[in-house]
Design goal:
Blueprint lengths: L3 E14 L14 E14 L10 H15 L15 H12 L6 E9 L2 E5 L3
Antiparallel strand pairs: 1-2, 2-3, 3-4
Length: about 120
């Protein structure tokens, strides 16, 4: 019998955005930037031959193309992120990486060191 184990890999990217749906006087209405920290969690049993849940290189290969789409861009210009709240960005990332990571359990996205979101999919 093999217990399920959860692994994670961390990524960072820098992006600018503004929130067009907040009131005019809200500070997030102005263009500003963040260094986002993304953690991707994979759950599953140990693969017998390797004694790991997933090769971290596989996780990296699935996530890096999305990071390239977001890193050093104005997120509002990306279709689907016209109102790029942390929650919307997390959903966007999930939808892009889930097809390539069948064991994807959750993602955690920090917009600042003290603020972020955890998303577990639909």
């Amino acid at each position: 019998m093999s217990a399920k184990i959860e692994i994670f890999k961390q990524f960072t990217f820098d992006s600018a955005h503004f929130l067009p749906n907040v009131p005019e006087d809200h500070k997030c209405r102005r263009i500003h930037g963040h260094t986002y920290i993304l953690e991707v969690y994979i759950e599953g049993p140990l693969k017998e031959q390797f004694e790991w849940v997933e090769d971290f290189a596989v996780v990296k290969a699935a996530v890096n193309p999305v990071i390239k789409e977001l890193d050093h861009y104005l997120l509002n210009d990306i279709p689907g992120l016209e109102n790029p709240t942390c929650e919307r960005i997390a959903i966007y990332i999930w939808n892009r990486i889930k097809p390539n990571l069948p064991g994807l359990k959750k993602i955690r996205l920090n917009e600042t060191p003290t603020s972020g979101v955890v998303y577990r999919g639909e």
